[in-house]
């Protein structure tokens, strides 16, 4: 009981913690004040109150600048992620209060923007009482520390302590703009050997794999422009920079409108797939409804 009273007495307010986190990030009380729409004196007072409550210095002055002390840096490193989680939790709580049920869904950015988001209006029409919070990132999701109801995972079926439902496999097709096809006299896979190709940096051998399946020999080294995102490969192909090798499900709209056309009929199926991931041991009818709906979309 004594420890609890001590903690309540000396625990800084959320406003004070935000001021410290911002000042630590910028190494400047002035920039922190601008970011938080406060006066510099208010930020200085927050830092002073926090140092008094904690009993040690968080910053030291070096000329006209401020720098974190070792203790201040340790606190700042731990606090940044904690504050982000608090803000996310509050946002989700507010959203949940505006809906009968709120699902927290995680996805890769390109998959979300190109495939999932255009389909979400259909889900909302069929399930008007379920809201969606969508989070995207490139790094792997951690269901043990992040409160996601459903995560859309790309890779192998190797996610421990989770329920996985396969959405679909990845099939890569060669595409280009109609003008590019005409200008380079593209008639099939063989003619692509003399044409500019667009590559994804983390898939260095996928063009050669596609070429072999299409019956093209000696297609080991295929020069061309390098991109780090599928969205950039799509944009480059539409602009006529070259032929792109892309997952068919990411370019449904471009194929439908004729902005891009498929070259040949080869569909190279990679070793990876998309899976719907749910935490084990949690009953969530809304998440089950979302997963079932996604299965129908595939």
TrEMBL record:
List the Pfam families: HTH_1, LysR_substrate
Its BP terms in the Gene Ontology are: DNA-templated transcription
Presence of the UniProt keyword Transcription regulation in the record: yes
The UniProt entry, under InterPro entries, shows: ArsR-like_HTH (IPR011991), LysR-type_TF_proteobact-type (IPR058163), LysR_HTH_N (IPR000847), LysR_subst-bd (IPR005119), WH-like_DNA-bd_sf (IPR036388), WH_DNA-bd_sf (IPR036390)
Q: What is the lineage of its organism?
A: Bacteria, Pseudomonadati, Pseudomonadota, Alphaproteobacteria, Hyphomicrobiales
Q: Which residues cross the membrane?
A: none
| Record's protein name | LysR family transcriptional regulator
Is the keyword Metal-binding assigned to this protein? no
Domain HTH lysR-type: from-to ranges: 12-69
GO terms for MF: DNA-binding transcription factor activity; sequence-specific DNA binding
The entry assigns this protein to a family as follows: Belongs to the LysR transcriptional regulatory family.
SUPFAM superfamilies cross-referenced by the UniProt entry: Periplasmic binding protein-like II (SSF53850), Winged helix' DNA-binding domain (SSF46785)
As given in the record, the signal peptide range reads none
UniProt KW keywords:
DNA-binding, Transcription, Transcription regulation
């Amino acid at each position: 009981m004594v420890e609890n009273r001590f903690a309540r007495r000396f625990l800084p307010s959320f406003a004070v913690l935000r001021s410290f986190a911002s000042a630590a990030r910028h190494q400047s009380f002035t920039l922190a004040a601008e970011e938080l729409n406060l006066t510099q004196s208010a930020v200085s007072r927050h830092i002073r109150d926090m140092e008094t409550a904690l009993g040690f210095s968080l910053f030291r002055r070096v000329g006209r600048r401020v720098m974190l002390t070792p203790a201040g840096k340790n606190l700042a490193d731990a606090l940044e992620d904690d504050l982000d989680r608090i803000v996310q939790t509050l946002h989700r709580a507010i959203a949940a209060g505006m809906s009968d049920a709120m699902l927290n869904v995680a996805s890769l950015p390109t998959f979300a923007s190109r495939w999932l988001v255009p389909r979400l209006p259909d889900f909302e029409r069929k399930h008007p009482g379920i809201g969606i919070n969508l989070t995207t990132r490139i790094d792997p999701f951690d269901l043990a520390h992040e409160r996601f109801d459903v995560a859309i995972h790309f890779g192998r079926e190797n996610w421990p302590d989770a329920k996985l439902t396969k959405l679909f496999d990845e099939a890569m097709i060669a595409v280009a703009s109609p003008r590019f096809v005409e200008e380079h006299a593209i008639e099939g896979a063989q003619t692509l050997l003399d044409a500019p190709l667009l590559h994804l940096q983390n898939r260095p051998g996928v063009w050669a794999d596609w070429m072999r399946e299409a019956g093209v020999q000696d297609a080991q080294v295929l020069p061309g422009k390098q991109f780090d995102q599928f969205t950039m490969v799509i944009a480059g192909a539409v602009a006529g920079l070259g032929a792109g090798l892309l997952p068919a499900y990411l370019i449904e709209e471009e194929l439908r409108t004729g902005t891009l056309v498929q070259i040949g009929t080869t569909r190279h199926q990679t070793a990876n797939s998309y899976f719907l991931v749910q935490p084990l041991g949690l009953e969530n009818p809304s998440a089950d409804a979302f997963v079932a709906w996604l299965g129908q979309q595939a």
